[in-house]
Write a structure and sequence with these properties.
The chain is mainly α and 361 residues long. It contains 14 helices and 4 strands. It has one domain. The chain is globular.
Length: 361
């Protein structure tokens, strides 16, 4: 690895880490303001303009609050659990492509930390590790409510990961790749031309049922309402993190919001073209009058903006759903996963195979 590639790799890692760390306080503020807006309340408006500094106060509180370990817990696993929960959240973003490559003095710089040829499998594998943090937290807390929460999370993850994996198989069948960069690039093709309007070959257009299954499973995988049964306050007090406080509890919340970000970026990459430009951006880019490297950097900037807008939309969608749909009963949760989602995912596979065989897609 030469100097330019080393600098580029370091810059990408720093950019992603800083971005993910900043997402957490911003999303906490968005959650509070968004819920207040939907419930016709004011929300945070005292600390800083529009209450923007309230998240900073929360961070200072978590950092300075006494972090004591209860005497009845298994101390090793109790301490390890938050780390196991949050670490995969950072690692999974490494294979997300947020712009196409650019050539600088003969060096091809990719806007992706790790361009793995098995990027899809990598994300599915690493994200499944985070459930172990929840299991460890519930078991090591030596508390019946925490244990109930971890058992719920285990059953929920297994039930919905199956449907999620099958929904992604449809994407793999259509684009014949499990490399995220290739999948994002392939979605730049035209699926249908209706006069002056070109419908791109985005995953949501070739796999609409698969998208709905994947989106629903994403809520279950991130433990967000209406699938937040592992921490149902009205049923099991707080679930798996009941015995946690201070920064250890903050790590669980950090993991939740970073998982939301990764899920949003994953949805944008698989089903909404990833860094493919939004309608109108190509026209603006071509009329800026730029040439050479100026045009290339402008293209990258537009692709970053397009990817970010798609990701921000789904982050807001997570908040919107949380404050709109009530929590399911546990039997409803399991029935939906096994009796509705799984059969639909299998039907989607058969339909996709038939459409590929008949040449429709």
């Amino acid at each position: 690895m030469d100097q330019i590639e080393l600098i580029a790799m370091s810059a990408k890692i720093a950019l992603v880490v800083v971005f993910l760390l900043q997402v957490v306080p911003i999303m906490v503020w968005v959650e509070r303001r968004g819920s207040a807006w939907m419930q016709n309340r004011t929300g945070p408006n005292r600390v800083g303009p529009l209450g923007l500094l309230i998240s900073l106060c929360d961070a200072l509180k978590f950092f300075t609050k006494e972090d004591r370990t209860p005497g009845h817990v298994n101390k090793f696993y109790y301490t390890l659990a938050p780390i196991v929960a949050v670490a995969p959240s950072f690692i999974t973003f490494a294979v997300i492509p947020f712009a196409s490559s650019i050539n600088i003095d003969g060096h091809v710089i990719q806007f992706q930390i790790a361009n793995l040829n098995v990027g899809l499998l990598y994300i599915l594998s690493v994200t499944s590790i985070s459930v172990y943090g929840i299991i460890m937290a519930g078991w090591s807390s030596n508390n019946k409510y925490a244990m109930f929460g971890s058992l719920r999370s285990t059953a929920q993850m297994i039930s919905y990961e199956l449907s999620m994996g099958l929904s992604i198989v449809g994407i793999v069948m259509v684009f014949s790749s499990i490399e995220l960069g290739q999948i994002a690039t392939a979605q730049g093709a035209t699926l249908l031309q209706l006069g002056p309007i070109a419908i791109p070959k985005w995953g949501v257009f070739v796999q609409p049922l698969g998208f709905l299954i994947f989106l629903t499973a994403s809520f279950a995988e991130t433990n967000r309402l209406p699938f937040d049964l592992p921490e149902g306050e009205s049923e099991i007090v707080a679930g798996y993190h009941l015995e946690y406080g201070s920064m250890r509890m903050a790590l669980f919340f950090m993991a939740e919001y970073i998982n939301m970000t990764v899920a949003s970026a994953f949805i944008a990459t698989l089903y909404f073209g990833g860094w493919q430009l939004l309608p109108g951006m190509t026209f603006i880019l071509n009329h800026l009058g730029l040439e050479g490297m100026g045009f290339e950097w402008a293209r990258v900037a537009f692709e970053l903006a397009s990817f970010s807008l798609k990701m921000v939309f789904f982050l807001w969608f997570f908040v919107w759903v949380r404050w709109t749909i009530p929590r399911f009963r546990y039997d409803q949760l399991m029935d939906l996963g096994w009796k509705v989602m799984l059969p639909l995912a299998l039907v989607n596979l058969f339909v996709t195979g038939f459409m590929i065989y008949s040449g429709v897609i």
